[in-house]
Amino acid sequence: MHQFKKLPIALDIANLSPNVTRDMVNNRNKAAELAHKSLRAGTCQGADFTGWLKPGEILTADEFAAIKACAEKLRERTDVLLVIGIGGSYLGARSVIEALADKPDSVVYAGQNISAHYIKRLRDQLMGKRVAINVISKSGTTTEPALAFRVMRDIVRGADAAEYIVATTDANRGALLQLTEKEGIERFVVPDAIGGRYSVLSAVGLLPIAYAGVDVDKLVMGAVACADLCANADPNQNPALYYAIARNILYSQGYAIEMLANFEPRLHFVSEWWKQLYGESEGKENMALFPASVDFTTDLHSMGQYIQSGRRILAETFLIVEDGEPQVNIPKWDDNSDGLNYLVEGEFNSVDKVNAVAYKATAQAHREGGVPNMSVLLKRLDEESLGALIYFFEYACAISGLMMGVNPFDQPGVEAYKKIMFKMLGKPGFEGTAGESAPDYVSF
Ligand code: PA5
Predict the structure, then answer these.
(1) Atom of ligand 1 nearest to the CA of 145
(2) How many angstroms is it from 264 CA to the middle of ligand 1?
(3) Does 372 sit in the ligand 1 pocket, CB within 6 Å?
(4) Catalytic: 366?
(5) What is the extent of the structural domain holding 300?
(6) Residue 355: partners with Cβ closer than 8 Å, 6 or more residues away
(7) How many domains are there within the chain?
(8) Are residues 237 and 209 in the same domain?
(9) 55 φ, ψ to 5°?
(10) Is 281 a pocket residue for ligand 1 (Cβ < 6 Å)?
(11) CA of 235 to the centre of ligand 1 (A)
């Protein structure tokens, strides 16, 4: 078991070698240091969107208390919270809730797709329950959540319905803001200086997370502890710098994909959040590692063959929970008909111990198969570790993008499909020919 020092997260870099060594990381630090300094000085690209840098100062004490009070009030009066949002207005909250909440099902989600089947099933599921809605959209105009809010809103009924609807949106702009003003709906603010994918520790993430019963004070404390270390310009003292440099070296060696791999299903949405963070921040100017994710050992039985022996363009980052998992002992069978008694009689006599061995074996096999890998170790899966992890990935993402010369805080590419879709839908302001490409069917 790793001995953690100041942070409940650590990096295991053994399997990066020979692709990435400590010397190589230190030699590459000039570029990282420049990015680090410009980020902190507010002179980097996109500096207007670095409001997440000080996680303890995103909210005032009053704002923080108001979020917790609102979450508590809704928790007392309802059975379920419907979070309506997409991308950065959804993934951060879901990643923490799925990882840490005792009852993650007390929060459900809409507006993250346009599936009629999904919406219909969700409506059926919520009928007869006491439901609160938190509709989240910084712009206040994103189609998916706006549509979902329209079709789901009547799920909250009664003369006092407005008391069970909370909006999280921009302080000054957007259709959602106007709606809250018109109807007296309670409102929390998405800070101007924080983009969606960096917003989990603002009201965007904290209100649903608090509703789910997760300790938001500890979550922010974990992020603050990591932020303190990330002030250091030495990658040997700053895990985010180390990670950012390592993945940039791998990219420069021709690796095209970074897979985030967990061995714990409740980390699935942390990977989804991570993919958005890195994909939207770095995927610009025909560059960057493509962020992918796998859930092990499940995906070892579907993607394992490719990872071991397919095209050698994969690098891997394991996300590993070191301790604190429930101990589920393996029972002994007298007839040993399944051949598993060797586990019961040996050192690895519980499910978590077998899982830990599966991770070590996988990391070694993949290294030997030509997949350089590192591991982000979490001391245990709790608020402090996850808060630290969130900040670690955010800081590393900003550094990594800046090292590549892109603005890690914008996402102009996301507009392309919207413009075409709006023309096709006939949205006012997007008139003109839709330029729809003609289908060329192969029918059988
Ligand atoms: O990270 C981002 O900026 C995006 O993923 C947005 O969060 C997402 O598009 C939703 O935008 P909005 O919050 O304006 O509805």
Answers:
(1) 15
(2) 27
(3) no
(4) no
(5) 2-44+220-404
(6) 263, 264, 297, 325
(7) 2
(8) no
(9) -65, -25
(10) no
(11) 31
Asked whether 191 lines ligand 1 (CB < 6 A), one says no
Paired tokens of 397:
């993402």
Is residue 161 within 8 A of residue 149, CB to CB? The reply is: no
Domain ends where: 215, 241, 266? Answer: 215
Cα–Cα distance measured from residue 199 to residue 95, given in angstroms and rounded to the nearest whole number: 12
Task: Choose which residue among 86, 90, 94 to substitute to test ligand 1 binding: the one with the highest number of ligand atoms within 8 A of its C-beta.
Answer: 86
Question: Which of residues 168, 190, 215 is at a domain's end?
Answer: 215
Which one is catalytic: 54, 332, 418, 427?
A: 418
Check whether residue 104 and residue 249 sit in a common domain: no
pTM of the model: 0.97
Residue keyed to tokens 């985010």: 240
96 and 225 inside one domain: no
Q: Given the structure tokens 């609102």, which residue do they identify? A: 70
**Domain of 281: which CATH number?**
3.40.50.10490
Question: Which atom of ligand 1 is closest in space to residue 85's alpha carbon?
Answer: 15
pLDDT score at 435:
67
Q: State residue 405 phi and psi, 5-degree precision.
A: 85, 15
Report d(CA 90, CA 107) in Å as an integer.
Answer: 11
Tokens of 25: 């990381």
pLDDT along the chain (444 residues), means of 10: 93 98 96 97 97 98 98 97 98 98 98 98 96 96 96 91 95 92 94 97 98 98 98 97 98 98 98 98 97 98 98 98 97 98 97 98 98 98 98 98 97 90 92 76 93
Which position among 144, 258, 272, 280 bears the catalytic label? 280
In the block, tokens 């310009």 appear at 233
**Is-catalytic flag, 353?**
no
**What pLDDT sits at residue 236?**
96
Verify whether residue 418 is a known catalytic residue: yes
- Give the pLDDT score at 433: 62
Residue 436: what pLDDT?
72
From ligand 1's centre to the CA of 138, what distance in Å?
Answer: 7
Whether residue 199 is found in the same domain as residue 131:
yes
Query: Rounded to whole angstroms, how far apart are CA atoms 308 and 15?
Result: 14
Q: What pLDDT, on a 0 to 100 scale, did the predictor assign at position 216?
A: 98
Closest CA to 201 of 291, 45, 193: 193
Residue 195: CB within 6 Å of ligand 1? yes
pLDDT at residue 229, rounded to an integer: 97
